[in-house]
Write a structure and sequence with these properties.
The chain is built from three helices and ten strands, in the order E-H-E-E-E-H-E-E-E-H-E-E-E. By secondary structure, the chain is of the alpha+beta class.
Length: 182
């Protein structure tokens, strides 16, 4: 497990690092290797201790944060929260296992500079990301959106093998964009 720790508005502490590493070992049993974990410690107004943890592994990304009056209590609370998310994720994966080998399709995501988009000029691309879109059911896509705290997700429907987009509506429900062939 590769762990990166960042301290904001506070001094680095070897005791906190060691405690967080020990606690992160608890969640390693739910995730396939390699695991990349980023831990952010911060203090606001000298009394609010915040811990945020982001975990990335093969096909799984999750993040959680917690704020308390004690840094050690915040670590415990955020680890519990991530552990609950991963247990729920693993249970749903077992229930929705697809038959056969799962292969993803690469997609490219581009971010355009807002003031560059008009009718007379071509937009300026400021960031491009390539990701692998994995086959999953709609329920798995909803769960992945919740784990990642995202507003939309692009995925391949495990039943139809078509690329779909699932998004969170303003009313809290979900919308699904499916391709339609004429």
């Amino acid at each position: 497990m590769q762990i990166t720790m960042t301290f904001r508005h506070m001094e680095q502490s070897d005791a906190l690092k060691k405690y967080a590493e020990e606690k992160l070992e608890r969640v390693a049993k739910y995730i396939d290797s390699p695991i990349n974990a980023q831990v952010y410690f911060s203090v606001e107004k000298k009394i609010r201790h915040i811990v945020e943890i982001v975990i990335n592994s093969r096909g799984i990304s999750t993040k959680a944060s917690e704020a308390t009056n004690d840094m050690y209590a915040a670590i415990d609370a955020v680890i519990d929260k991530i552990e609950r998310q991963l247990v729920r994720y693993k249970e749903k994966i077992k229930a929705h296992k697809t038959s056969g080998e799962e292969h993803g399709r690469p997609i490219s995501k581009k971010i355009f500079q807002a003031d560059s988009i008009d009718a007379t000029t071509s937009p300026i691309v400021i960031k491009t990301t390539t990701e692998t879109v994995k086959p999953m059911s709609v329920e798995e896509a909803v769960m992945q959106m919740d784990l990642l705290h995202k507003d939309f997700i692009v995925f391949i429907d495990a039943d139809s093998s078509e690329m779909n987009v699932l998004y969170r509506r303003k009313d809290g429900n979900f919308g699904l964009i499916e391709p339609h062939r004429a």
